[in-house]
Specification:
Blueprint (H helix, E strand, L loop, with lengths): L1 H42 L6 H35 L4 H31 L6 H8 L1 H4 L5 H26 L10 H12 L2 H5 L18 H7 L2 H11 L12 H7 L22 E7 L17 H9 L1 E7 L5 H10 L13 H4 L5 H7 L3 E6 L8 H7 L4 E3 L17 H14 L7 E6 L20 H22 L6 E7 L12 H4 L1 E7 L8 E3 L3 E2 L2 H9 L22 E5 L2 E5 L5 E4 L6 E3 L5 H20 L1
Parallel strand pairs: 1-5, 1-6, 2-8, 2-9, 3-4, 3-5
Antiparallel strand pairs: 2-7, 6-7, 10-11, 11-12, 12-13
Amino acid sequence: MKQVETSVSIFSAMKKALKRFITVYVVFVAIFVVAKLLFLLIYSPSDVSAADWLDVVLHGLPMDFCVAGYLSVVPGLLQIVRLWTSGRWPALTLKIYFGIVGAALSAIFILDTSLYGYWNFKLDTTPLFYFASSPSAALASATGWQLAAAVLAFVAVGTAISLLLVIAGVRKVTTAHRPWKATLAMAVAVGLLFIPIRGGFTVSTMNVSRAYFSHDRFLNHAAVNPSFSLLYSATHSNGYASQYRFMPDDEVSRYLPVQPTAGTDSAHASILNTERPDIYLVILESFSAHLMPSLNGDSIAMRLDSIANSGIIFSNFYASSFRTDRALPAILNGLPGQPSTSVLKFVDKVEKLPSLARELGRAGYETSYYYGGDINFTNMKALLVGGGFRNIISDADFPISDKTGKWGACDGKLVEKVLQDVVATQPGRSPQFRVVQTSSSHEPFDVPYAGKRFAGDPRLNAFAYADSCLGALVDGISQSPRGDRALIVIVPDHQGAWPDEFESLPSRHHIPLVFAGKALAVGGVRDSTLGCQPDIATTVLKQLGIPADDFLYGVDLFSQAQPHTAFMSRPGEVAFISGAGDTVVFNPDTEDVIAGNDTERAPLLQAKAVLQNLYTNLSNL
């Protein structure tokens, strides 16, 4: 009779442990499905049907199963422990674990939902990188009420998730004498989690592209589990050599666009009236071609428009990436932005990049960098110091009274600082290379300016303010004692922040490149040559007669000796415009063509070759 009672007890313990384990797994999956529905509710366009919602949920389930599998391993193992002991510590450990998981999932959901409206891609390690390098700068885009709402949402969602998991998995289980059979059954159940974690039995393991099912990018994004997206980004951002292997390495060179040849280019056109001009490179936060009427945009950046029309404007020019940490290496180092990570995460590689400032320094230039914000944000200081900037001015160099914006000193105070140094520079000094990076036209668009035209739109008001500061800077440089030898290069840092909707990735990345200043030998020129930010360093150096052979991805914009192309990227999307003007947009993770002629293979192969070559070179740094 006693043996029968023990058998029943063992069976009861096994049944309850399995039930708790399976319930926890199902709750995890249910949480992910509900999060998906809430995401759709917030961002779904009006033309998305109920069938689309169902497809999003169904195609996202394998990834939800995967993440639920990862998160269920610890509860499964603790359920086994509870078969052997009636002590309270396993249950307490489970509660602590569920509390941590609840907080983590809540943070992921809130971040993903909050940032998607700005970035239009699923959560990766980018915001973590921003926060780790400078928490105050990372939070500068958010207003006080947004931060308060995010904290309240984090607490509410995290508490709800934790309570659900505790209810599902921390009820009392029956212990039994020598529960070997129950332990074996639970061990098998936990082991079976390998199947959803791996993504099934096929050759391909679980990856972000598994959720992609539609030609509508938003539906694909909605199907992706943000927890998996973050985990995948964290584990795949370091291995440049293993990413984007589209073809054998020995075939890559066949499809690479032709690079400039070393030495003097007979087709090169000079635009300067002085041999060694002072060079001012102005990097405008979030500006785009869509703010300029001369580029068929809105009448917002009118000073920039006027400056461009009196100088040289490249009307067919594109930003390399979507955020400043990937834009600065494109502008200053000639390195195209990477879709999966930022090279600034790897200081050891940053130090080995070619640098415009370093080359100009070797040619006798004094090099300075001006920025009103935190120079340590996203390892920017490592890029600048390693790149040869000898004089770096940042928020620490401004009095507290000047740092009125979320990003530090506003553009007006930054311009005042630059012009003080410009005026104080003696005529006999060495040529100057000064970079001025603005910040006031960044979220939250809080500026000391109230333009009547844009009183109801803080964003446009911020652009108008930054534009007025740019005008003051150009005027001040031109009127300074060394103004006659000034070459002013103006370029936005990355994709535009106006308007909200864009037809395509190239449209969003369409920016002006402007050459201005009294060192120009020509003016009033509108140049339709195709170009991208990595061309800037090569073009400037070529104008000065300085070799640019180390800048592998740049082409001299004033030379027609080789084809001009444009390569731009963001997470999950790469666009390429070939020398013949053909455009292709594709997902580098799935290799699906998003826009462009799918039967036209040449631009797609060129784009893949550039991306593969870029990652190979970065892996070798």
